[in-house]
Hints:
Layout: H1 2-26, H2 33-42, H3 44-58, H4 66-83, H5 89-113, H6 118-137, E1 142-143, H7 149-153, E2 158-159, E3 162-163, H8 164-182, H9 184-194, H10 196-201, H11 206-232, E4 234-235, H12 244-253, H13 265-284, H14 291-314, H15 321-324
Antiparallel strand pairs: 1-4, 2-3
Helix pairs in contact: 1-13, 3-8, 3-9, 3-11, 3-12, 3-13, 4-5, 4-6, 4-11, 5-6, 5-11, 8-9, 9-11, 12-13, 12-14
Amino acid sequence: MKSLLRRREFSLFIAIGLLVALISARFPGFAAPANLGSIFNDTANLIILALGEMVVIATRSIDLSMAANLAFSGMVIAMINAAHPQVPVLLLILASALVGLALGAFNGILIWKLRIPSIVVTLGTLTIYRGAVFIISGGAWVNSDQMSAGFIGFERSSLLGIPTLSWFAIGAVAFFLFLTTLTPLGRSFFAVGGNPDASVYAGIDVGRTTFLAFCLAGLASGLCGYLWISRYAIASVEVANGYELTIIAACVIGGVSIAGGVGSVIGALLGAIFLGVISNALPVINISPFWQMAISGVAILLAIVVNARSERSKGRIILRKAEIA
């Protein structure tokens, strides 16, 4: 499986390079380091969200409520900031992450304890969380003039020449790499998705592992609640509306199998960057950004076909002997 993933990641890396080169042939400034850094910064939220979704999909589940979770978490801390601008930004970031964690845990509990399919649960909570945004805000927006300068400016600052928002994405990649490669929990996510029955015999609590995956997805959503709202300086019920497709597209394009058990952090990262390059390229080549949804849908279908063919031809290693022992 590792060799398959490496080939998939390498192919995706080459595809991104060719895409950038193709656009740069017509618009040379597109490949400038400053512009590529800007593209990464623009994609930072998607990277974090895709990593959270990756661990959920790895367990043979799916979370359709991440964007709604983001909108609710962002509205909560935007309203707190508007009412109490003296609250430190770091405390607001923590609060946003914890709100997202709580919503993710709610999803996980329903799936774990009531054994309801994840697609049903998260489709329901997607609507609930969107409705909750409207209820707590009364349908009103929180605009930039109601937000403190520190709230908006924190992620726009830079460290070592790299924007703070990009550092959040880099930190998320490092965290998920550590989690999925060096911890039993991270390996359990893929074992559960690969074969839940074998995982039970290996001593893995399938329900608890799935619950923790949804907690991580909620935590990522909550963190992006602050990052999204402060970046665009507006909080409303429409924030990140329909972004669920983009998050899932980033995972699937990156080689994360919808059937569970297959995927990697680097793959999800490259999938997000691939979509980020497309998103930034469309205006440059005078194509409406509304085409991005259609392109994402086509990319999902193609990626699923490639994933399915690869898994049929190569097979899937569910558990290594070391993990069973």
